[in-house]
Design a protein that fits this description.
With 210 residues, the protein is of the alpha/beta class. It has 2 domains: 5-51 and 115-205, Rossmann fold; 55-105, no CATH class. It is built from 6 helices and 8 strands, in the order H-E-H-E-E-E-E-H-E-H-E-H-E-H. It has helices spanning 5-16, 33-44, 84-106, 130-140, 156-163, 193-209; strands at 24-28, 48-50, 54-58, 61-69, 74-76, 118-122, 146-153, 168-173. Helix 1 (5-16) crosses helix 2 and helix 2 (33-44) runs parallel beside helix 6 (193-209). The longest helix has 23 residues, at 84-106. It is globular, with a radius of gyration of 17 Å.
Amino acid sequence: MFRDRIEAGIRLASRLKKFEKDDSIVLAVPRGGVPVAYAVARELGFPVDLVLTKKIGHPANKEYTIGAASLTDYFVVPHEDVSQEYIKEELAGIRERLKRMHKAFSGDHEPVSLEGKTVIVIDDGIATGNTLLGTVEILRHGKPRKIIIAVPVASRSAFQKLSREVDEVIAVLIPESFHGVGAFYEDFTQVSDEEVIYLLQKLKNLKKRA
């Protein structure tokens, strides 16, 4: 059990010390992954950027993930009952939302190049891992040296699924019984846009003083 996302990040940071000598970058999944990534970066000095992707849901069931999209790329598992017209419409809507998030959180900041880097994707927990699978496919196009997924808590099924797709999955907790990510936090209050902006600014200030 974690007190909150900051404490979870501090505990996660101890598992990530082995990447200190790599050319590493943390990619935080907004919004819940940002406080966790903030704590990791504060402890280990890794640079932080946001991974702005959203899942593409099946037309018959939006909760069933068939892919993911970023501002510039997308990945979809082909389905016979999913048309290209549907994908096109979903991409347009998703990218509008991602543009607003990018503007709010990053302003005019351009995404950092991932080529040759150890990319550490951080979220506050993983239930199914389906959305992250699509995100990983998109990140591969950036030609990183390694892709690591790091979270405070993951279901065993998601841990096993993602471990087959990336270089390593690191989780502080992999409980036998999993009833949702929030069950492992005393405080799992929804992270606001304002908190994301505040924490990213604090990291910039720490970097300037370093």
